[in-house]
Amino acid sequence: MGTGSDNDSGLALLCTAGEFDLLITGDMDTRTEKKLLAAYPLPDIEALIVGHHGSKYSTGEELLAALSPEIGVVSAGRNSYGHPSDEALRRLAKAGAAVYRTDRQGNIHISVK
To answer: Cis link prior to 84 (omega < 30° from 0)?
Structure first.
């Protein structure tokens, strides 16, 4: 769903190792992403775990512009929802993020040196 669901009250995590930052927004929609941006000073990030399996309601342009992720990881398998959505994938491409998808590449391993 777009707004008002339990997905909006999930936990977001910013993980930092040296100069490497990874953000996990869970199933936040774009409305909740805006609240996150307003509430916390977030850095440019290297990796973003794309919200809500690449739903068209998540990973909005405002979030992508603020964070400038280099990598977007989409966790999705076969599903009837159409995840990841073409809209989310287009937004990631427009933001310049390289996209890795579990439905295409399988397990995604990110290591920091």
So the answer is: yes
Whole-structure pTM value: 0.89
Question: What confidence tens digit (pLDDT) does each residue in 21-40 have?
Answer: 999 999 999 999 999 999 99
pLDDT digits (tens, 9 = 90+) for 6-23: 666 778 999 999 999 999
Task: At 55, list the tokens.
Answer: 């739903």
Place of tokens 């739903």: 55
The answer to whether the beta carbons of residues 50 and 60 sit under 8 Å apart is no
Structure tokens at 73: 């990881």
Q: How far apart are CA 84 and CA 47, in angstroms?
A: 17
One-letter-per-residue 3-state SS of 31-100: HHHHHHHHHCCCCCCCEEECHHHHCCCCCCHHHHHHHCCCEEEECCCCCCCCCCCHHHHHHHHHCCCEEE
Q: Which of 48, 70, 71, 57 is nearest to 28 (CA)?
A: 57
**DSSP-based three-state secondary structure for 93:** helix
